[in-house]
């Protein structure tokens, strides 16, 4: 009788779970091609490394360690659950208790159950009463369905742990009351308390309770299992797959279509993501894997300044869309354009691709590639804000977003000091090192100072340096990230040809966007260094020596603002700091949000032209963070950061109290000549 | 609805540094980049939006040389169905009326319900739209900033008039409208879009195809001639306001009021 009942519960549970899971997988089979399975070793390491390193990052340590406790206890208890199911067919007797291994495992299970219950209680209290603000659902995303689900699932898991304790405790009581021996129960565990509390029961009462609780427990376990593919719990299954198939190379962008070479991209029927099935299966898997933990949006600078973008809801809206358009019952619903339906144009243009969300996500969900794919779709359909059309057209015609004349690209060299030697290679000259200047540093009056500082540093270190001059075009870094892939490919091919023709053996740039483009978007180029890396190397080789800071500068407190494309996307955190610290008399502090948690200045490249809806500027928030850290000089390593910081200092009304300077300018100022 | 949009290839003022050449007959053209005249681009977008609503086709036409084909292709990548290039050595040196005469001949080769032009061109005189309407003896509205279709015979068009005021008119088709910028938000045309129409055939019509004699078009027929090109002398410099922020603001408001900037 018991075995039949157990069989019905198990069969219904497994059947329902399998059905729901199969239906959930349907959109993955209609989706665009995803990444190749390669570099298995690295992927296995990622699986081990990322989740538990990211869950307890600063600010999230409480729930991070709680969640790790839940994972570990569930891992331990997975065998215990199989044994529980098995017991349903053997008169509710847990198997293998008479062996040493079995008894030992039972003790470990007692401990794991207790840890699990404690973790669930903490998580429920935190969610229900402490209510961290990052879980709030802003009005525009509808009513808060997140909290009820979270409380239901965590309560159910806690209840399962509690029921299990009562089941095990009552079995022990029944055995003892009948005068039989029972296995050792670890003292002070939940099971132990249950056995003490139930100690007064007769053998038959304990036996009846044991049977009753067993079936409630079994049903609860299968209700929990069936609920897995309905909400955030899905990450238990898809999360590991998302991490396993994650993008392994930082700073790169996914191809327009996996498996299609750049040369053949032009022939594709459609470009980017327009309807749901244009997402890759990996990206739909990402939607399923979102645990709705809110870390991404908590770190997102666009969200912080009130732009209409919250990465969390990119995922949640995607998941809800998949669930509603691939229903468990009835026909799949035909999908129309995503823009204007679940995503808005401004939402997708609001992203600066700074990568803060991706750096934080414990299941390594990719946002930048999805945003870029959606932008590719919008560009293909002509849905580009007017403010971005002019710079894009100018990039196509003149190779820079302002439409300035090509022949004026090297004009900044006219005001170089006498002793600074830099060759313009457009005349056929050659040099060992190529300085890739890129558009803003070439043309903007203020940023040209940064170009001159970089040239001064390169020259002082004795590097035989040249520039491409009128033959250089924009690196196209933001062109690609704003979705205009074809224009990017043109710019890339042109620059690649020019760089290779110049015969340079090494490339240096002062612009992290150019650095990232040349390193990660271009192929077959000589090694590329950011000026901070170049300088650090030359300090170590004793080619560069610094003067101490003068008396005016000595009392200032410096802080380094990590540019997104130098830091997060290329993991160059230490070189600029080491360079600053090599200046005698330098007092340097780090902001709370620094290195991989750096806060975007507002975005570079085409983002300078975009007119976002926002309550305040990212730069202003950043300048205030510097102030809070006690700094009065913000050192950047990126021309766009410098533009945004200088503007933000004015907007924040901190002129005279705060200044911004580029690392190359600081170095050029401090170099000891001769 | 069959719509014809007249477009022009012009040096893009935002992407060029325009300088007058040494003998003052023209601008320095060596380093220029060209694009479609901005007003014309709005006109084409409007035509495509009308077509998307009520059906029909959009044809773009230009008077120019082989290089003008690029603007036709760009507008076709945007969504125009056909392009026509009007090219002949005899057309060179035409004045506004000459250009309108050439366009009139092209209009008469087809059957159009609606003819759109840009309100003006970056390098033009804002005269061709009106002249074309007069030559065709069709109703005309200039500086149009909204078009509403009433039925297949009538349109309701909005015109921007001085002082930011708006005027609404009913106009019978066929008619000619000159389009003001801001009437819509023209879509972006990417490199991919242009490549897709790279091999579409664009018919070219010369003077004889259009039945135009040398006395009607070209330099010989032009009655308005350009005499000189120069950069006007710089006026007085800017006035710097002095004082605290509040004082500066007060002074600025005063100045704006005095000069009629604000009421």
Structure notes:
The complex is a heterodimer of chains A (674) and B (263). Chain A is mainly alpha-helical and 674 residues long. Chain A has 4 domains: 2-230, no CATH class; 255-380, Fumarate Reductase Iron-sulfur Protein, Chain B, domain 2 (Orthogonal Bundle), CATH 1.10.1060; 400-540, Rossmann fold, CATH 3.40.50; 551-670, Rossmann fold (3-Layer(aba) Sandwich). Chain A has helices at 2-30, 40-54, 61-87, 100-130, 146-177, 190-197, 203-227, 235-244, 281-289, 295-299, 301-304, 311-325, 345-349, 356-360, 368-380, 386-398, 439-443, 445-460, 477-481, 485-502, 512-521, 531-540, 551-554, 574-581, 618-628, 639-651, 663-670; strands at residues 423-424, 433-436, 465-467, 506-509, 528-530, 558-560, 588-589, 633-636, 659-662. The longest helix of chain A is centred in the N-terminal third of the chain and has 32 residues, at 146-177. Chain A is elongated. The termini of chain A are far apart. Chain B has 263 residues and is an alpha/beta fold. In chain B, helix 3 packs across helix 4. The longest helix of chain B has 17 residues, at 38-54. Chain B starts with a strand and ends in a 5-residue tail after the last helix. The interface between A and B is medium-sized, with 27 and 19 residues.
